[in-house]
Structure of Cysteine-rich secretory protein family protein:
Amino acid sequence: MNKSRILSTVFLLVVFLTIALTALPGSASASWELGIANLPDTATVSQTNQTWEDSEVFRSEVIRLINLERTKNGLNPLEESQTLTYMATIRAQESMNFFSHTRPDGADAFTIFSDYNLAYTAVGENLSSGFSSPAKLVEAWMTSESHQANILSDKFVCVGTGFYVDENKKIYCSQLFYRP
């Protein structure tokens, strides 16, 4: 086994163990919220000095900014979940080919939770494409009623932010909100 394969295997093992440890018994047929307003493709990465090649920095800043918005509105910050981040990264990549809260196979976006055996009482999703910075992205989400509703919902306790850059350097972002 080469080093890359070993690291990939370890990463997947950690993800699956995290899912197994965080999944609680219960019905997966609970409520969910969608950020259904498709955001305009108003900015591209090339319009900024920052290329955001480091997805971890981008994701961390998005989460920091949404937690600032929550704090300003008297809400507790959301806890970042690595499992949700992994799932949101899949959704970000899927949105590159099919920008919708429906998955490329026609299934509902929230089937990703059952794909990873993650039971929930409430979930939500925000999607975006083409924003050049976390600040511009969060600003756009906060001016969209459905996206803002997810960010400021007291139903959610965890969040994961996914990030994908296509061959043209266009950024796709997905955010999954969760309550076990």
Q: What stands out?
A: The domain at 52-179 is CATH 3.40.33.10 (Pathogenesis-related Protein p14a). The beta strands are 31-34, 79-80, 122-129, 158-165, 171-179.
